[in-house]
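Sanity check

After download, print the first record. It should look like this:
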Amino acid sequence: MSRGVIVWLLAIGSVAAGVWVMNLRSGDGLPVWARVELLPPAEQELIEFLLLLPAAALLCAIVRNVLGFATFGTFAPALLGLAFRETDSPVGLFVLMIVLTFGWALRRGVAGLNLLQVPRSSVMLSLVSALLVLFVFWSNSQGRPLASALPFLPLVIVTGLVERFWAMEEEDGTGPAVNVMLTTLATAGVIFLLARWGVVRDLFRHHPEALMFVLAGQLLLGRYTGYRLTELYRFRNMTN
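Expected structure tokens:
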């Protein structure tokens, strides 16, 4: 049996398992311990985040493998998009853009010290943290508290993004690095909007078995060998 057939069977089995559990849930056939609505609110929030993360990773894979846009990894845009899903305004995303810009400038200064990679990353984390602390103090002095708009999860991710941006800039130039960074942030923005959509949130919160559908999509996407949409645009003259 070929690997392609195995992947298709696994995907079909995942969908069938998801449908079976959904039918059990609708018919009240699930055991008590598997009912999400009986969990404390904090546990429901955790389940929602854990289930949205694979869905966000699937979206990142579609952006990279089907659309053909490059991003800085798979989990960075996924985690960024999900981390800001509870914010009530775009302030958090605006702060992230400011931190990325200043972090890039600080990284250029740190590069001149010729530090080893791990200590350099630690220095960058300290500088980014100090920058955010100063920004919080300044924002509060202006009467605009940031605690509800700035989740703590993306802070470490920002340091990694700055490092990867700098490495790509040295290898390929500023233009390609900026394009990949913009694509990464745009992907995170789409994930942010989808994660805040009530239909999506209710689906994953009340039906954890929806993860089986996501898994099926990931398996099938892993066998995708067709053209990326950006490649069709790049090589459009060859079809004429």
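If your output differs, re-run the checksum step. Summary of this record's structure: Residues 41-67 form the longest helix (27 residues).
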